[in-house]
Amino acid sequence: MAQTNTKTVRRKRKVRLLTRNGQYYDYNLLACVVLLTCFGLIMLYSTSAYDAQVEYGSDTYFLFRQALFSVGGLAAIFVFSMIDYHFYARYAGYFYLFSNLLLLVTKFIGHEVNGAKRWIKIGPIQFQSAEPAKLAIILFLSVLIVQFGKKLKGFKAPAVLFAFGALTFLLTWKFTENLSTAIIILGITCALIFVAHPKTAPFVLTAGIGLPVGIVGVRGYVSSLGASGNFRFNRVLAWIDPEKYSDGGGYQVLQGLYAIGSGGLFGKGLGNSTQKIQSIPEAQNDMIFSIICEELGLFGAVLLTILFVFLLYRLMFIAQNAPDLLGSLIVTGIFAHIALQVILNIAVVLNVIPTTGVTLPFISYGGTSILFLMTEMGIALNVSRQIRIKDN
């Protein structure tokens, strides 16, 4: 009896730590985000210090900028976690239209960086126009699914949802030439429809037949092309045989694989990477995972992967316990976004898929990316705040 009372008291103490006036707050998610951000800043400095010193005369150039955006992102988490997520539902349609308009105008007024027009520059402010589109599609489709209700059982409602996602996919691809982000947007769309749709069989059948056929078909078609002027086809050719194209598209892939292989079990030590020194172009961006493997080894890569898995687990927990369908769908969309981006980035570094330019969330360099990721985390935390815990 005494042991039972002790357990009850401990449980009540734990509940009091996690709740305020019966409200839950996911401190585990917040702590995981902070850990990932701090780890990202450490690895960013280690990866970019040499290039920053050579190009900008300061080894902390990239670190300072990313730290500034990270602080702004933490402020965004606080602000958005305090705003009721139902507020966003009222303006989700307008946000969707605005984000698509940004994609459109990027083609004409976009600021070109490294040969691509993906940024909009207004005075000292510069942002990547495709980043708001990810959040917009999550909010807008979640609201539409709630409005459709039982109509989602048919064919028309899912087709409408997919059409909205496909529209943003095409605008992102054609007007910003950012196919990687376009694929993520389409993936989020499919994930939300899959989760909301009452039937699973059509999705399993489509994936089971369509994916293998598509992969084999694309691989055979690209192989038959030989040398091509299209850089995306060249990327696929380099993926199939990176050593053959080591002087072109396969160079970055091979250097990344060399970095991973040389890291071994525990790595060369923080800051001791050799591949980051003018071997991997802009290693602080989408190839940062290869430097993590080189400096921290398999051990560091596994720890980072565990952190991402824990982050996704907390998002899944919030989605399952959300107070209503809207909150559950919004967090599910955020879950899909993070999961897709992590999987695609690591798959590219390991040469499982062709290079796509997808950054590693919270780790890779990118101000717009970190701000919108933190905004999504703030919205997820607001959903968690509205979970009610009953202490029986």
Notes on the structure:
Belongs to the SEDS family. FtsW subfamily. The chain crosses the membrane at residues 24-47, 67-87, 94-110, 130-148, 155-173, 179-196, 203-222, 288-313, 325-350, 362-383. There is one protein chain. The chain is mainly alpha-helical. The protein has one domain. It is 71% helix and 5% strand. The chain is built from 14 helices and 5 strands. The chain has helices at residues 2-18, 27-56, 61-82, 85-90, 92-109, 130-148, 156-176, 179-196, 201-225, 231-240, 250-263, 288-321, 325-349, 367-385, and strands spanning 19-20, 23-24, 111-113, 116-122, 125-128. The protein has a 3-stranded antiparallel sheet with strand order 3-4-5. A two-stranded antiparallel ribbon has the order 1-2. Strand 1 (19-20) and strand 2 form a beta hairpin. The longest helix is centred in the C-terminal third of the chain and has 34 residues, at 288-321. It is globular, with a radius of gyration of 22 Å. The two termini are 17 Å apart.
- Form type: globular
Question: Which strand order do you get reading across the main beta sheet?
Answer: 3-4-5
Report the strand count: 5
Residue share in β-strands: under 5%
Q: Total domains, how many?
A: 1
Radius of gyration: 22 Å
Largest sheet: 3 strands, antiparallel
Helix and strand pattern: HEEHHHHEEEHHHHHHHHH
Distance between the termini: 17 Å
Low-confidence stretches: 11-19
Q: What is the number of helical segments per DSSP (H or I, 4+ residues)?
A: 14
Helix share, percent:
over 70%
- Let me know the average pLDDT: 84
Helix/strand class: mainly alpha
